[in-house]
Specification:
By secondary structure, the chain is an alpha/beta fold. It has helices at about 170-180, 225-235, 255-270, 295-300, 320-330, 375-380, 390-400, 405-410, and strands spanning about 5-10, 45-50, 65, 85-90, 95, 100-105, 115, 150-155, 160-165, 195-200, 205-210, 240-245, 275-280, 310, 360-365, 370, 415-420, 425.
């Protein structure tokens, strides 16, 4: 079964709790603390699987959770980290935050693997809290809680050119003729319910991928029929091949068909109308001599607008070669990289929400500026500061929470040390 949309809930693993214990050995009646650290919780990771072409795996299971980290143990034994949960998705899957409908990541192009939610950091055992004045700490740090997110997954096919048009105008026959794709072809509406991809090979020219986008109908942009299910696949294509029944064999006016479909595209996403479009006036073998040639009417209406019209017969192959080389010419003038949608929602920013207090102070003995607070500690537990993206987020966090302003009010200067729990760094403005 083809399924190109799924709504699921994902949850990372919580960090294991730190352990409170003390050495108890023969002849060592008052041993020091030896509580181990908790293990890190598992992360939710998205990964492109080249063998997948649907989201059907997410049809029946809607909740996914990574493993929790284990608690620490005595004798300084750290808890086992929770296993990451890897969700395999087809290339072209766009991940959105369900409530806002904002894009988190587009699993296309170079985006082959992405950590969606980081597991909670394990808590520190009581061995870390021993000081000269407190040699037997009875406190251990709890693990960071798990994080949860509702996401919407949408598969948008990746193709250089997309075939659009009303049902039963010959798109599937066209795809069969120009590529090795074999969509089901029959003389009834909505034959094609799945987007089919085919590779077009050209002599002495680079080939390209073409997608047969299922038939559209009037009102598709408002969800009539299967409008939304079809229209999302057009967003990824670079060139639109508008197939129209020039013979009017379905009893419709081909000129009116083109206008209606373009209106639907514009209503769904106005940017689609800025993409190169050409018209394949199909079924010319069914136009009888003596009648007014409808292809001439289409050319008169659209070629002055820069939309080239090709008279073709998908059944016999007449006129198709010229059309394909023209598509290749259009593609040669465009970037070779696939269309990749930019992120609009960043799961890390959920850590910026809330008004948990924080403190900024100066430790004159250590000559360090100290930053503490529950939200800051929570942020450190979920952020990989070794990665460039994580460190940039940390810098933005320090600025947007007002921490940097408070450090400056305390008189911090370049080169001074800032301590944020176990993290230390030198301050430079």
């Amino acid at each position: 079964m083809f399924k190109d949309r799924a709504k699921i809930s994902v949850k990372s693993g919580r960090g294991g709790n730190g352990h409170v214990s003390f050495r108890r050995e023969k002849y060592v009646p008052n041993g020091g603390p030896d509580g181990g650290d908790g293990g890190t919780g598992g992360s939710i990771i998205l990964e492109v699987d080249e063998g997948l072409n649907t989201l059907a795996d997410f049809r029946h299971q809607r909740k996914f959770k990574a493993a929790d980290g284990s608690d620490g143990d005595k004798k300084n034994k750290s808890g086992k980290s929770g296993a990451d949960l890897i969700l395999k998705v087809p290339e072209g899957t766009v991940i959105k935050e369900a409530e806002s409908d904002k894009i988190i990541i587009d699993m296309s192009g170079e985006n082959r693997r992405f950590t969606l939610l980081t597991g909670g950091r394990g808590g520190k055992g009581n061995q870390h809290y021993a000081t000269s004045t407190m040699q037997a700490p009875k406190y251990a740090q709890p693990g960071q809680p798990s994080r949860e997110l509702n996401i919407l997954m949408e598969l948008k096919v990746i193709a250089d050119a997309g075939l659009i048009g009303f049902p039963n105008v010959g798109k599937s026959t066209f795809l069969t003729k120009v590529s090795n794709a074999r969509p089901k072809v029959a003389n009834y509406h909505f034959t094609t319910l799945n987007p089919y991809l085919g590779v077009v090979d050209l002599n002495e020219a680079k080939g390209f991928v073409v997608a047969d986008i299922p038939g559209l109908i009037e009102g598709a942009s408002t969800g009539v029929g299967l409008g939304f299910e079809f229209l999302r696949h057009i967003e990824r294509t670079k060139v639109l091949i508008h197939v129209v029944d020039a013979s009017g064999s379905e009893g419709r006016d081909p000129l009116d068909d083109i206008i209606k479909i373009n209106n639907e595209l514009s209503a769904y996403n106005p940017e689609l109308m800025k993409r190169p479009q050409l018209i394949a006036a199909n079924k010319i073998d069914m136009i009888y001599s003596g009648d007014e040639n409808p292809v001439d009417r289409i050319k008169e209406a659209f070629e002055p607008k820069g939309i080239k019209v090709f008279a073709i017969s998908a059944l016999s192959g007449k006129g198709i070669s010229e059309l394909l080389y023209y598509v290749r010419h259009l593609l040669d003038g465009m970037e070779d990289e696939p269309t990749v949608f930019a992120p609009e929602f960043f799961p890390e920013e959920m850590l910026l929400s809330g008004n948990d207090p924080f403190t900024v102070s100066y430790d004159d003995k250590a000559d360090e500026f100290v930053v503490e607070g529950p939200r800051i500690e929570r942020m450190l537990g979920y952020t990989n500061l070794q990665a460039e993206k994580g460190f940039i987020f940390f810098q933005r966090f320090m600025k947007e929470t007002g921490i940097l302003d408070e450090l400056e009010e305390l008189g911090i200067t370049d080169g001074k040390t800032v301590r944020v729990y176990e993290l230390k760094f030198e301050y430079y403005k």
